């Protein structure tokens, strides 16, 4: 194989990765959420959501947050998003909103999870609102995160296959 | 006679049940015959076009990745939108390019005029092999550069006649077919 062929094989690999990346970015743009698909990591929302469920989120600014809705939010300073239900909402006329959340399967509200001294969440903490879900599929992501060697093995295998295989 | 090429000395061995490998081996052999038996020069224009389109697409995707990393999501929205749309448009262009312009051509060889006066003769070799099929369709076309109408010659090769039981390519048989097509085209009047 000459150098053009080799370059082409790398481009092929890059195009597959780029397609996945562009679909993800496209979803981000369309839903308005920085993380349009998330995996439920804990059982704090049972029986509604179980560990390993895949959630589809949207984050449209115009839609107000109401009590009873399931939101995914990030606490300032921590990067793991949490998916819980909105319990109380305080809204000002200009649209500024403060709300309190609680997991369905928890005994207490989330004030213990918020940052030190924080009693309410703001709009900017919200990653998105849950719109739909697919059960179980996210278990693969959980396994790959718990056993990183497995993740690297799968990725390496795929990478090698794409680089070597001639169309 | 011509010098024998590296492939003629040492023909490749492939998995005879893998259609993809068979097609690639036959394509390589046809290309090798065309380039080593005649003093033709290979033209990479077609492949370069494909590389160019793919590189532009990947470039946009890398740009999107970097921009989003530097200016996290909500601010990068419009740039993201542009990059995503351009990327998928490029994918469309690539598909169009492969389907209509390339059409299975895997080798373009130029017969350059020594005096440099007449336009080059362009030889295009294209092939197709359907999945699970054993008929390799080879099409050789000759066109005099610029405006000449292409002359074509086609043949269908049954793959089992060109590989032995171990999967080794029978270079001589391939060469015979290619040379036959070539002289057919050369002698055919327009």
Automatic annotation (TrEMBL), chain A:
EC number: 3.4.21.89
One cellular-component annotation, GO: signal peptidase complex
Domain Peptidase S24/S26A/S26B/S26C: from-to ranges: 24-110
Catalytic reaction(s) noted: Cleavage of hydrophobic, N-terminal signal or leader sequences from secreted and periplasmic proteins
Alphabetized SUPFAM superfamilies for the sequence: LexA/Signal peptidase (SSF51306)
Subcellular location: Endoplasmic reticulum membrane
Membrane disposition: Single-pass type II membrane protein
Residues annotated as transmembrane: 6-24
Keywords: Endoplasmic reticulum, Hydrolase, Membrane, Protease, Signal-anchor, Transmembrane, Transmembrane helix
InterPro entries xref list: LexA/Signal_pep-like_sf (IPR036286), Pept_S26A_signal_pept_1_CS (IPR019758), Pept_S26A_signal_pept_1_Ser-AS (IPR019756), Peptidase_S24_S26A/B/C (IPR015927), Peptidase_S26 (IPR019533), Peptidase_S26B (IPR001733)
Gene Ontology biological process terms, A to Z: signal peptide processing
One Pfam family hit: Peptidase_S24
GO molecular function, one term: signal peptidase activity
Primary location class: endoplasmic reticulum
Subunit structure: Component of the signal peptidase complex.
Family statement drawn from the similarity comment of this UniProt entry: Belongs to the peptidase S26B family.
Job description of the protein: Catalytic component of the signal peptidase complex (SPC) which catalyzes the cleavage of N-terminal signal sequences from nascent proteins as they are translocated into the lumen of the endoplasmic reticulum. Specifically cleaves N-terminal signal peptides that contain a hydrophobic alpha-helix (h-region) shorter than 18-20 amino acids.
Stated name of the protein: Signal peptidase complex catalytic subunit SEC11
Organism: Petrolisthes cinctipes (Flat porcelain crab)
From TrEMBL, chain B:
One cellular component term from this protein's GO annotations in UniProt: signal peptidase complex
MF annotations from Gene Ontology: peptidase activity
Subcellular localization: Endoplasmic reticulum membrane
Major location (coarse): endoplasmic reticulum
Name of protein: Signal peptidase complex subunit 2
Pfam families: SPC25
Superkingdom, taxonomy of origin: Eukaryota
